[in-house]
Amino acid sequence: MSQGEGAGAAGVDLETSLGYLLKEASSSLRAAMEAALRPLGMTVTQYSCLELLSQRPGLSNSELARGAFITRQSMNVLLQALERDGLVTRPAAAPVGKALPTRLTARGRRTLDRASGAVRAVELRMLGEMTEAERAAAFALLQGMVVRLRGGEATVSAPSAD
Amino acid sequence: MSQGEGAGAAGVDLETSLGYLLKEASSSLRAAMEAALRPLGMTVTQYSCLELLSQRPGLSNSELARGAFITRQSMNVLLQALERDGLVTRPAAAPVGKALPTRLTARGRRTLDRASGAVRAVELRMLGEMTEAERAAAFALLQGMVVRLRGGEATVSAPSAD
DNA sequence: CAATCTATGTCAGAATACTGACATGAGTCA
DNA sequence: TGACTCATGTCAGTATTCTGACATAGATTG
C-alpha cells in the first residue's frame, strides 16, 4: 500500500501539497520579517500589534488578538509590556462594557514607523516581479482558501474605530 | 496624515497586504488542522513529523526539523516523545556521521494513516472548487514568494522587469 | 597529516503562546 | 426584574518553541 516512498494516495503529497507550500511560505515570510525587525529590537507579534493599532486605533485587547492570530491572553501579556514601555496606552476604566480601547503613543508611532519600513521592504521583496494581475490572483486565491477553511466566517470585525 | 485611519502609503495596508493574508491563511489552515487532529490526540507538528517520515523514511532529526519548519532542538524534543510512545525508532548509534535515521514503527504508521485522512479532508476543503489551473497558479505564485523571501537578504535589488 | 569549517545531536534555560478558570459588563428573553 | 448567554480582561499554570552552548563526526584545505 502506502508503505514505501509513494504515499500520495491516502495521504498528502508534500511535494505538491498547497497546504504544505502555504506553511512554507508563511514560515519564510515570518523568518524574513524577524530578520528585518531584529535590528530594531522588535518581534513580529509586537509589530503586528502596533500596525493594527495604527490602522485601527482604539482596538481592544481581544480584537487585537484576533487581528494578530493569537489568543487574547497572549495579546494581553504583550500589551502589558508595550504599555510598560510606553508604546501604547489604555484607559484605566472601560468607557463601555469591559473592552479597553488601546492607542499608540507618540513613541509607539515612531517605533512603528521604523519597523513598518523594514516590513514593507520584505513584502516588496516577496512580491518581486509579480504583476498586478498576479497579485490580485494570489490575493483572491488565498482569500478563497481562508473562507473555505473558516466555513465562511469573517476575519476581523472592524468596529467603529472613532 | 498617515497617522489616522488610512496608513497605506508609509506602511503596509492590512486590508490589501498579501503578507497579512498569507499569515491569515496559514493561521486558518493550522487551526483547521488542529481541530481535525485533536480528536486523534495529535498535534500539527507531530503529524508533520510522521508525514515526513512516511514519505521520506530515514530522515535525520535536523532534516525533519527543516521539513517541519522548526528548529532541530524542538524537533529533538518531539522525536524523543514519539520514540517514547513507540511511534518512531532511531538507532542507538549513527551508521554514518552523527545523523540518526528515523523511521516509523508499525504503530506510528497506523497512527499516521488515521491522521492523514483527516488532514487530507482539511486540504480538500481548503481547495474547494478550485480548478486544476487555479491550484497550479496558486502553487507557482506561492513558490515564487518563497524563492524571493529565501533569496537575497541584504540586497533588496531584485532586478525588476518593468 | 593537522587545522579549520560545517553539520549534527543534545542539554539547559528563556521566551512565547496556549489552556483553564474566574469575575464583570452588556444584551436577550421570559 | 431576574435568569441566561455572550464577550471581555485578567490571573495562573502548562506546553511548545526558541536561543545559547557544547561535543562530536565528516569534509575541506593548507
From TrEMBL, chains A, B:
It comes from Galbitalea soli. GO terms for molecular function: DNA-binding transcription factor activity. Residues 15-147 form the HTH marR-type domain. One of its GO terms (biological process) is response to stress. InterPro entries: HTH_MarR-typ, MarR/SlyA-like, WH-like_DNA-bd_sf, WH_DNA-bd_sf. SMART domains: HTH_MARR (SM00347). SUPFAM superfamilies: Winged helix' DNA-binding domain. It comes from the Bacteria. Pfam families: MarR_2. This is MarR family transcriptional regulator.
